[in-house]
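writing this on my phone so excuse typos. first protein, seq and then structure
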Amino acid sequence: MNVPITIDKNSTVYHVIRQLLDKKISRLLVREGEKITGIVTQKDLGLFLLNDTSDRNLEQIPLSVVVKPLQTIPESASVKECAQLMLENEFGSIGVSDGNNVVGIITKTDLAKFFQIHQGKKIVGEYMSPYYAWMYSDTPLYKIITKMIDEKISRVILRDHDENPVGILSFRDLFKIALLEGQEKEILDNTDPAISVIFPRSGFLSKTGFGGTTTAKDIMQDEIITVNYDDDLAKACSILNDKKIHGVGVLSGHGTLIGILSKTDILKALAFI
């Protein structure tokens, strides 16, 4: 269990994104005075940035538009019970309560760190997901984030039109461009190589915002961090935690990308170990 990282309920969406990026985390607990009253996650932020079509900048938008109630478990719950509850309810994190107040938080990252002690128990191939979400690298951002939200994932593999993996895009990459472009009143559209057009910004990652004019290859990470199919699952957890990422590609014995191992897959291993 970690001491919760919190943000005041009177903060703005700008301050939330800034903290998530600076601390390399995917959620913040929301406090009102000394009491924790809610949670904001990267997926809730992503959904808001996709749907908003106003001309506001991020500092004008109150945190309250993205806050959700925090679900909790008692301090006495076991790690296995925690993993099972998070899996069953598709929680990325869960608060820990002493009966009166939230005293901590358990995240997928915490459970992946815990799994590191189980060396030699499981291999990556037993728990990886053979399906992985992908899109072409010239896809506009609003389509990328729509897929991420619809499929409840935090990253997308990007391919060129020869079907070769060329990069990866995560919520973190989307938030970086939101901070950069979300303060601008106008958008430069260079999608037609013959002409550049400037028009008022209406939203952020929406089709009418910069989500319609910026493509995945403009902001993607070129390096896809990978592990091998027959690697120790505990070793893969170490890579996830050391790199502060939520998923890695899985390679076959021939070096072909055949799946993804995410922290959700680690939850499954813990729930049934």
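second protein below, same order as before
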Amino acid sequence: MISNPVLRFGLAANRLHHETYGAALFQWLEQSAAGIRELGMECYTVGRTFDAIERSGLLAGYGGLVRYPFGREGGLMKLVARVTDGGNGAESFDGAIYLIDPVDPSSIFPEALALKRQCITHGRPFVSTLMGAIEWVEIERLCAGLAPDPARAPLFDFSGQTLALIAHDALKDDMVAFADQHFEVLSRFAGRVGTGTTSGRLNELAWSRGWPKDTPWVQPYLSGPLGGDAQIAELVLERRCQRVIFFEDPHVARQHEADIQLLERAVRVVTDKAACIASPAVAHKWAGAVGPLKA
């Protein structure tokens, strides 16, 4: 265990992901339990998910596994409250890992939607897929100054991956600034896709940095309201896009909310093959951590 500040994460999983051995929760722990122990990461875990971990023995004897109530008793609601800054004298969470089954009705309960929204609002990771959960423990390890885990190297081999870059209107400038700051990292990907004006602005940035003028840095798709999110969702479902960085504005109502949710659901359908980042702060942390890794 390292001496950096204690990491605190909320943890939950829909029934599909903890009901049988070999489900996503157990696959995650098989690959990440050692990193969790090494970090001393505290996992505040909703009832059934906690019970499943206890039965598995994958975190046996680990004091950082903390039980929260069942979802029906408000466990997920309590996670939402702890993601926010301060209040009730309790330390805030550093993020949430919620392994979501997109066809489980509870995945769209108000507390589930609020957990994601508050993570975005406060610039904390909201991790909802198996690939994302495995990756994020490694990101925290790298940020803590630990040596890269060789077993995670395939996750960060971007030469065979495609990245989607999407931003809502109020955050398009943030996306351009992010791409400018981390241009070399993002250019490691085999391909990049984007929607509407965001892709146009990112291509202008790339060309200004010397990218060949006759080659788009980002392959443009339609704007979100016209179906671009759905087009990229299809790429995700076909395993032709592995990562989505989607700068969402949590403070405005969106008429094409269904399209946004469709893309998020697609990522969760292929839970072991895709990951999504939904805020600038988290994207910068991710890119800063993977930047020094060998391309």
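The first strand starts at residue 8 and ends at 13. thats all i got for now
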